[in-house]
Amino acid sequence: MEKTFYLTTPIFYPNAKLHLGHAYTMTLADALVRYHRSAGEETYFLAGSDENTQKMVDAAAKAGVEPLVFLDGIVKNFMKLYGSLDISYDQFIRTTDKEVHWPGAQALWKKLMESGDLYKKEYEGLYCVGHEAFVTEKDLVDGKCPDHGTEPEHLKEENYFFRLSRYADVLKEKIESDELRVIPQSRKNEILSFIRGGLEDISFSRPRHRGWPEGLGVPVPGDDSQVMYVWCDALANYITALGFGRDDALYQKFWPANVHVLGKDILRFHAAIWPAMLLSAGLSLPKALLVHGFITSGGKKMSKTLGNVIDPEELIETYGADAVRYFLLRHISPFEDGDITRESFKEAYNANLANGVGNLVARVMKLAEEHMPGPVALVDADERLDHDFSNSVETLRFNDAMDLVFAKISRADEYMAEHAPFRLIKSEIAAEQESARKDIEYLVRQLANIAAHLAPALPHTAAVIMDAVRTNKKPENLFPRL
Q1: Number of helices (H) and strands (E), helices first, in the chain?
Q2: What domain count does the chain have?
Q3: Residue 67 near residue 56, CB atoms below 8 Å
Q4: What is the pLDDT of residues 260-292, one digit of tens each?
Q5: Is residue 324 part of a domain?
């Protein structure tokens, strides 16, 4: 049976420009997919935008633009950044897509209704626009949302509710047993603690009368007075994109997802609400959730007020996409918060890219072009991935995998310094010249192997190195010193 690999990222709110945290999610996801694709697995990589949000409507109003027109512009910016970062997604789903998304979301709603897990009641509570969620007094600090610094709205309305409370015990068992793996352990502990504290039923719809723009929000089947709230709408994208509720060939092939990649701020939604929905509907659970931390700058949350916001597009324009991918994948842990400053980025760029892999490739291929009779004939072993590298990627420790690649680059540098083929090749002694050629051939093979290991993380760099090896030509400077 053909092995498949299905990976998803969160569908981000299209209310503003994407930041480095979004860039990290997408780059980490892309590197994982590229690895599995190179292993011969049939992969499917899903990205998208969550367009049924109050934040987006507010941002559109502030900009003086109709919501759907505003959305189109923001989504184009999403795709521009993804293109600049070389993100190789297979599908970009939009929750306003009536042909692709809505049928599956409505089909899922019907399954929840058939299970007896949806009911209608009047609800009064505090609503945080930033979270797109109802909150309780205990979630607030001095009456404000601690994440957004805003006071929640007080709302009273009639909604459909989902019986999340019914699934507390089974969710706990699924997560404890790793049937649903939550990675890392700290996030697993966090969600288990949350579930043990008790799960309450949650609002699953919103009344239409609140002036919601036409085209936003999936209509509740059989009740025109309501549209689906974010949970059944947005979270359903992971299966609606595969044709669930329509033509489900992709769904049958790729579901359950191998990995949902997400930030720690949406852990509860993905590790409690989403699997409870799937259990209610009688559908398979995803296999793993990779929950990464936040990116700070100088140890502080990025904010315009502090002046420490670093725009990923600015870094790409200055250093190139592969340099940004390098820093995010090697210097940011998938399991903890990571930090970046312009100074730390430039230092890492010069030390490890300009003076590291870039310098090594230039020196080796200059020697090869000048002193080898032709391209080195590669064998399979030259491009075979090391077991430790593969193990690191498959256990989602991509930063460890990157450390292994750059240790390989350092060893090649040390070999060059110790064997000095650049000196021996100039010798008048034939045996020394022959020894130098063997050393150059060895180093060229090392470059091919380095390129194979770099390919998931730095696809452009890897392709340039392999082209240089196969044509026996020194490439243009990969990473000019800045």
Answers
A1: 20, 16
A2: 2
A3: yes
A4: 999 999 999 999 999 999 999 999 999 999 999
A5: no
Residues 6+ apart with CB under 8 A from 20: 295, 302, 310, 311, 312, 328, 340
What is the domain-level CATH number for residue 460? 1.10.730.10
Tokens of residue 106, six digits: 């409505």
Sequence-distant (6+) residues with CB within 8 A of 81 are 18, 22, 23, 312, 313
Any domain includes 397: yes
Q: Are residues 161 and 87 in the same domain?
A: yes
269 and 402 share one domain: no
Render pLDDT for 422-480 as a digit per residue (tens, 0 to 9). Answer: 999 999 999 999 999 999 999 999 999 999 999 999 999 999 999 999 999 999 999 99
Alpha-carbon distance values, 145 to 13, 109, 114, 136, 137 (Å): 18, 30, 36, 10, 9
The reply to whether 327 falls in a domain is no
75: domain CATH number is: 3.40.50.620
Are the C-beta atoms of 147 and 266 separated by less than 8 Å?
no
Same structural domain, 356 and 211: no
Residue range 335-382, pLDDT digits in tens: 999 999 999 999 999 999 999 999 999 999 999 999 999 999 999 999
Distance CA 210, CA 127 (A): 14
> In which domain, by residue range, is 22 found?
4-293
DSSP secondary structure letters along 191-219: HHHHHHT----EE-EEEGGGTPPTTSSPE
Write down the pLDDT at residue 460: 98
Which H or E run contains 127? strand 118-128
Length of the chain: 482
- 194 assigned to some structural domain: yes
Beta bridge partners of 134: 127
Sheet of strand 300-301: strand arrangement = 300-301, 295-297, 338-339
pTM of the model as a whole: 0.92
- Contact (Cβ atoms closer than 8 angstroms) between residue 475 and residue 465: yes
d(CA 271, CA 286): 10
Which element (helix H / strand E) includes 407? helix 398-419
Q: Quote the CA–CA distance of 409 and 474 in Å, as a whole number.
A: 17
Sign of the alpha-carbon dihedral angle for 55, 61, 63, 69:
positive
Q: Are residues 124 and 257 in the same domain?
A: yes
Within 177-311, where are the H helices?
185-196, 230, 237-240, 249-254, 267-268, 274-281
